[in-house]
Structure formats: structure tokens, C-alpha cells
Amino acid sequence: MKLILPLFLASLLCASIAMASPLTGTFQMNGVVTATSTAFTWTGVNGTTPNMFTLSLGTGTFAGEDGQNNIQDLNSTTEPVGTTFPPQDFIDFSVTPGLPSLWIDFIPMGNGGAAGCSQPATGTVPPQTCTPPIPGGSPITFQNNNENGTVTGSSATWTSSGVTSDGSSHWTGIFTSQFVGQSYQDVLHTFATTGSVTAAYSANVAVGPNVPEPATVLTGGLGALFVILVRRRRRQV
Known about the structure:
The protein is an alpha+beta fold. A hairpin with a 2-residue loop joins strand 9 and strand 10 (150-164).
């Protein structure tokens, strides 16, 4: 029995080693996005190069990754809003080939409520918010920004999250677009009449190691303990 505890601890150590070298750090994204009721289409900061974004201010694993990297378009058919879906490739790092990609598996619904979408623009404090009542749900929370009680523009915010392709880490990104001189009612009018809105965006992305579920670690440890006890019993027999 003296060997059981050391071997049990060793099994836990092996579980820790299996998750070694996770991606960690933060970075900023910049580019242009075109939003429709069902999709996000990304282009570089020039608005013409498809599926590109500019990475800057990288820390941790992403220090030195500054430059042009790849981002995949999103569609509500394969990336539905408000529910976890199978991980899909989202961000691929071109500066350092071989760096694990960021896979997306969740896009939460916006929390602005639909009531303000049909109300006139006002410079209230707190400011107006709105999430368009799109079938299937919208991830965007709009806000009318104001100064001294007068609407001076609006912003759109949405969040995405997922895991790294090697399974070592989890990531979360907060995306924001600014509409200078336009209330979100103006933006929604454009959306309704053209079917899409195109705007520059920025995003802050944070990546950190996955933490194994306590039940998973316990199950692995108990499994190793069971094997040890069975082998010891067989020797005694």
C-alpha cells in the first residue's frame, strides 16, 4: 500500500504534463467587417483583402506576432448564436507557421434588448442600447453614445470564444465597431435597406490555459488507483 499514494500522485502529474505549454497572452485585432443577418465577412484594414486582420500589441505567446494574419468568415448555419457548437477554425497565425489556431465554439447573444431598436435616438444617461430582433438571435449589442445629452455616434459590441486547435487553451475576444455621427437607429436603417453594414472594428483577445475539470482529474486518479489495487491483489493470490 505504500506505493499507492506516490503512484496516485504520479498519475496526477502525468495529467498536468499532458497539458503543458498552453498558449497564453493577449493581442489586439483590427480590420473591417461586413455584417448581415446571418454572417460576418472579414477583410483587412484596407477593406479589400479578404479574410485578413492586423495583429498588434501581442503579449505572452503572441509577442512578436504583429502583422497580417488570417480570420475565417462566420455563418449562423455553422456557428449559431447563443449555443455551443462544434469547434470551427477561426483565426490562423501566419507570422509564425505552426502556432496553434484559435477555434470558435460559442457566440453569445447580445444583451441590449429589442425595445430600443424602434425608438427614436436620444441622448440619455445611461445611453440607449439595442440588440436587433433577428430570427435565431443576434450577437450584437448596439449603444447610442452621447455627450451632454446629444447623440454623437454609436458602437456595436459582440463577443466570441473558443479553444486552441491543440486543446491546451481557451480564448475570448471582445469586438467593437464605432459609427461616428450615426445613431444605431441610422445603422439599423442602413442594415434594413441594404441587407448589410460594413465598418472598421477592433478586438481585444485573451488566451489562457484550460483548467481540467476536478471530476476528470479525480476519475483519472481513481482509475490508476484501481489498476494498482487489482495488480497488488493478483500478486497476493
